[in-house]
Specification:
The chain is α/β, with parallel strands linked by helices and 251 residues long. Helix content is 42%, strand content 16%. It has a single domain (4-248), classed as TIM Barrel (Alpha-Beta Barrel). It has an eight-stranded parallel β-barrel with strand order 1-2-3-4-5-6-7-8, surrounded by five helices. Phosphoenolpyruvate binds at residues 9, 168, 173-174, 212-215, 233-237.
Length: 251
């Protein structure tokens, strides 16, 4: 069975003092989260060290929101998988739609990032999802299939077990509009079936597939009840510890 996971994506929010306050709040409230639910926070890279110091005893994974697609070198301002791993982080987001859209990240670069994450003992949390236009045109499953095929499904059976997938319909991110439980389940089931075809049912059932897109304490429980939804990637609602922990308690 796939692990239940709820991850917060803080994006480019909070100064150091606000970040430390939120980290302390999450640390204090983490005991309320059921034992079988893994939680984690993707802070801005500049706060990863603080996060690892404040969040004790391993209940809360700490991860970066991005890594660069080259291992090292003259790439001013970028952060490598090795750097993130050397801090003792657990995961990195890869291919968030905001990275694809504003920083023109393409499937080939994302494939390189997935490989670098795994080589550096980081769990790649691979994000995929369609735009509103693609949803309306009815092409959304094809879009998701090609995102996965071009950046993730080159992995062999042994490696793919180490990834987490996040389905994040772009039209639901930060908009307050959530995919309905049925809409989300349809895509999650589709992703699981792709994994079954490419690998096998055992592998497919081991990979956590998270939903992201305006998930909050009110809608989380209906989403998390769906057969193929193993948790959430939470943006806005993860900036308040009580909301974030409430979501993690929604299974
Ligand atoms: C996200 O950016 O990963 C996300 C899901 O954002 P929000 O929850 O704010 O829609």
């Amino acid at each position: 069975m796939a692990q239940k996971i709820v991850l917060g994506n803080w994006k480019m929010n909070l100064n150091l003092f606000q970040a430390e306050e939120l980290l302390n709040d999450v640390d204090r409230l983490k005991k309320e989260v059921p034992k079988d639910v893994q939680i984690g926070v993707a802070t801005p890279s500049i706060y990863l060290h603080s996060a690892l110091n404040i969040l004790t005893e391993g209940k809360v994974w700490v991860g970066s929101q991005n890594i660069y697609h080259e291992p090292n070198g003259a790439y001013t301002g970028e952060v490598s998988a090795d750097m993130v791993n050397s801090l003792a982080c657990h995961f990195t987001l890869i291919g968030h739609s905001e990275r694809r859209q504003y920083f023109n990240e393409n499937n080939e670069q994302l494939k390189a990032k997935v490989n670098l994450a795994l080589e550096n003992d980081l769990i790649p949390v691979f994000c995929c999802g369609e735009s509103l236009e693609q949803r309306k045109s009815g092409d959304y499953l094809e879009v998701i299939k090609s995102q996965l095929e071009e950046s993730l499904l080159h992995l062999d059976k042994g490696s793919v077990k180490g990834v987490v997938i996040a389905y994040e319909p772009i039209w639901a991110i930060g908009t307050g509009e959530t995919a309905s439980a049925d809409q989300a389940q349809e895509v999650h089931q589709f992703i699981r079936s792709l994994l079954t075809q490419k690998y096998d049912a055992e592998v497919a059932n081991l990979i956590s597939i998270l939903y992201g897109g305006s998930c909050n304490p009110t809608n989380a429980s209906e989403l998390f009840q769906q057969n193929d939804i193993d948790g959430g990637l939470i943006g806005g609602a993860s900036l308040k510890a009580t909301n974030f922990i409430e979501i993690a308690k929604s299974f």
